[in-house]
Amino acid sequence: MIVQTSRFGPVEVNDDRVITFSKGLLGFSSYHQYVLIQPSEDSYFFWLQSIESPELAFVVTDPSLFIQGYEVPLKPDQMRELGLEDVAEAQVFVIVNKRGNVLTGNLQGPLVVHATSRIGEQLVLSDRRFHTRVPLLELNESISASA
User: Fold this and answer.
1) Nearest CA among 82, 92, 30, 23 for reference residue 56
2) Domain 2-146 is found in CATH 3.30.70.260
């Protein structure tokens, strides 16, 4: 399938790569289908691109690459909703924002995706250890100027 994007133009992706968030994402509940676009082979960051709106995309990453020991505490009912029999079947992403020269991750609102069925949900964690703007990476001057 061809996905229209405002950042990359038309992008071809396999139909089996579509992630469905039946509840949508926080603030975007009417958009349910997304794909992950990896800008380069060695990138730790992806674009979570809506296939329903070319302008709607989020930068996401796997938080375990930056935050040692970060785990999403999934409740049994959340696992059932996602069709997970084991937490190992889940991929976890967080939405990334840039604040000054720092990339931050929303650890309070992780995206949990069943790796096989591609069903996902954005959770809201009440654990006070998790925040919406946790520093992940400090950018150097040359990257910051071009971002």
Assistant:
1) 30
2) no
